[in-house]
Specification:
Layout lengths: L5 H24 L2 H22 L5 H19 L3 H7 L4 H4 L3 H8 L6 H10 L6 H11 L5 H8 L3 H17 L12 H20 L3 E2 L5 H17 L4 H14 L25 H17 L4 H13 L9 H14 L3 H15 L1 H9 L12 H12 L3 H14 L1 E2 H17 L1
Parallel strand pairs: 1-2
Helix pairs in contact: 1-2, 1-3, 1-7, 2-3, 8-10, 8-11, 9-10, 11-12, 11-13, 12-13, 13-14, 13-15, 14-15, 15-16, 16-17, 17-18, 18-19, 19-20, 20-21
Length: 421
């Protein structure tokens, strides 16, 4: 971008740099809420100054340096400046020199460790899942409260309260902005990956609202995943999750019809799948496999790879996919996994054995309000020629979903089946 549109530059730079700036400030001042306030102060200065003085050659660096200067000023006012100098390991001679410039240099974070600390802090288990989601998107995604509210279709005050409570909880519980102790990393990493994948899933298949997808959420989740993969190159599940998101993201161009209507996987034009994202996803999966045994995200990526490697639904290795779902069901037991396995079984062995699996899931409490259960059952019944029963299942699916696009899809199936009766 050029200096002719400084406000757009500020917005773009903030979206890209917010996480890094807030993470660096959080390490300096030791408080997530205060770090965000200082970063916002730097953002306001950019909005005030750049339209008059022009966009700096390195706008991200300007934002970072300005925010750090404000943090240092704050520490001076709190009479903690000398203490912080000692914490960054300066000796007596350097502390008597140009201390401000030295502190700024000392607080640089070229390897992204600050971002990693902040990510683990924002996804701390003491916070609710909703709080983790909102705080992660706010601090590391650079999204406003309004944008987060719009993405998850909840009132803006609700999101504001979630962010406020999350910050307050971190402060009251005296949660330090640091990497967890080594024994706690696996459990804490699981929380981080869960939050990133929840963000991605909400973008990939929106729970409610008019749009079937919200690509911006997918992009934010994938960006966070790529950052995490760069910071934790030896973690199998991190690369498994990145592989999964890359492969699923590759289909987005084929998932919507001309009027924004959903196009199901088996009906998609695979020529419209993004081959670059597929190559990236397969490379990430290969890297995950080289690190050790695949976990739940790596196994889901391996399933997605079965689709990505096939040029048509008929060419897909459905037997391998059904076997992978079976393994996934042991690694991460879930009725949703079993439902997905039924779909793969139906393609590999026909609708009848798949219907037996689905019928065994009808009593599952977790699937009672899940629209995909009657939708899958309806599809299997239609393939078996049981048209009236299939129509009832799609009617039930339409009544359960809160997404308008998905409801329209199910109702079209109902109408088509009614014509067959």
């Amino acid at each position: 971008m050029t200096a002719s549109d400084p406000n757009r530059v500020v917005e773009a730079v903030w979206r890209m740099e917010a996480g890094r700036v807030i993470a660096a400030l959080a390490r300096i001042v030791g408080d997530v809420g205060l770090a965000e306030e200082l970063a916002q102060d730097a953002l306001v200065l950019a909005l005030e100054q750049w339209p008059q003085s022009g966009v700096p050659d390195n706008p991200g660096g300007w934002l970072m340096l300005t925010a750090k200067h404000r943090a240092i000023d704050l520490l001076r006012r709190r009479s903690r400046y000398e203490q912080k100098l000692e914490e960054v390991g300066r000796d007596q001679e350097r502390r008597q020199a140009d201390t401000e410039a030295e502190v700024v240099d000392a607080l640089d974070d070229p390897f992204g460790d600050d971002v990693l600390r902040l990510l683990f802090t924002a996804c701390h288990p003491v916070l609710s899942t909703e709080g983790r989601l909102a705080l992660t998107l706010r601090l590391l995604g650079g999204l406003s409260t309004e944008e987060i509210a719009r993405a998850f279709l909840v009132p803006e005050p609700t999101v504001g309260q979630r962010i406020f409570r999350a910050k307050r909880t971190l402060s009251e519980k005296q949660i330090k902005i640091e990497m967890p102790p080594l024994p706690e990393i696996p459990a804490r990493l699981a929380s981080v990956l869960e939050v990133i994948y929840l963000i991605f899933n909400e973008g990939y298949a929106a729970t409610a609202g008019h749009d079937w997808m919200r690509p911006s959420l997918c992009e934010e989740a994938l960006r966070l995943g790529r950052i995490l993969a760069g910071l934790m190159p030896g973690e199998t599940e991190v690369h498994g999750l990145v592989a999964l998101m890359e492969l699923q993201m590759s289909r987005t161009g084929a998932r919507l019809g001309p009027d924004g209507e959903p196009v199901l996987l088996l009906d998609q034009d695979r020529g419209r799948w993004d081959r670059l994202l597929i190559r990236r996803g397969l490379a990430a999966l290969q890297h995950a496999e080289s690190l050790g045994t695949l976990g739940q995200y790596g196994l889901q990526a391996a399933i997605a790879a079965c689709h990505a490697r096939a040029m048509s639904a008929e060419d897909t290795d459905w037997d391998r996919m059904a076997a992978l779902y079976l393994v996934l069901g042991h690694v991460a037991p879930s009725p949703v996994v079993e439902l997905n396995r039924a779909v793969a079984v139906s393609m590999a062995s026909g609708p009848l054995p798949a219907l037996e699996i689905v019928d065994g899931l009808r009593a599952e409490k977790a699937l009672r309000e899940y629209p995909q259960l009657p939708a899958v059952r309806g599809d299997l019944l239609e393939r078996l020629g049981r048209t009236a029963e299939a129509r009832e299942e799609f009617e039930r699916a339409a009544g359960l979903t809160r997404n308008e696009r998905e409801r329209s899809l199910f109702l079209r199936r109902v109408k088509a089946l009614a014509l067959e009766e």
